[in-house]
Write a structure and sequence with these properties.
By secondary structure, the protein is mainly beta. Helices cover 2% and strands 55% of the residues. The protein has one domain: Neuraminidase, CATH 2.120.10.30.
């Protein structure tokens, strides 16, 4: 519990212009907007880092705390924690990325899942961008979940179709 009390920041994504219709269907009533906010627990204040007229999701802190990593429209982006614009992160030919992504503990690597050929293989690439290396294979989808503390392995979820 003490570790939880030491957390100094929290982040939240707010979507607007989206409503639920029927049993789980999502329909955009207006131009979709994403707002990325950072909440400072000590100051009890939230601050908008990014507001864009598109859907972005699944923010992850960089290990140095300077940027946030998000995905949108199958691409990966970074945005400065102090505010700014989306900067595309080079993921080579892997451009159907979903919201399963994260930095290795040392901040040197990035794991991403991508909806490729109806599957979702996991790739690893340099955290600064570059050519991804596929690390899961098989007919079933696999979704990245988290790195081991030493960064030598990661956990993922897989299920047969």
């Amino acid at each position: 519990m003490n570790d939880l009390l030491r957390v100094r920041r929290w982040l939240m994504v707010v979507f607007s212009g989206v409503c639920l219709v029927g049993a789980g269907a999502v329909s955009a009533q207006a131009e979709p907007t994403s707002k990325l906010e950072v909440f400072d627990l000590d100051a009890r204040e939230r601050r908008v880092v990014l507001s864009v007229p598109e859907l972005v999701q699944a923010p992850n802190w960089s290990r140095d705390g300077a940027t946030l990593l998000v995905n949108g429209n199958g691409r990966m982006y970074t945005v400065p924690v102090g505010g700014g614009t989306l900067t595309p992160l080079d993921t080579g030919e892997v451009v159907s990325n979903n919201n399963d992504h994260g930095y290795s503990p040392d901040g040197k690597w990035l794991a991403i899942s991508s909806r490729t050929d109806g599957r979702s293989p996991i790739y690893v690439l340099p955290a600064t961008g570059g050519t991804p290396r596929q690390v899961t294979f098989g007919p079933e989808p696999s979704f990245w979940y988290g790195w081991s503390p030493d960064g030598k392995a990661f956990a993922f979820v897989s299920y047969p179709e």
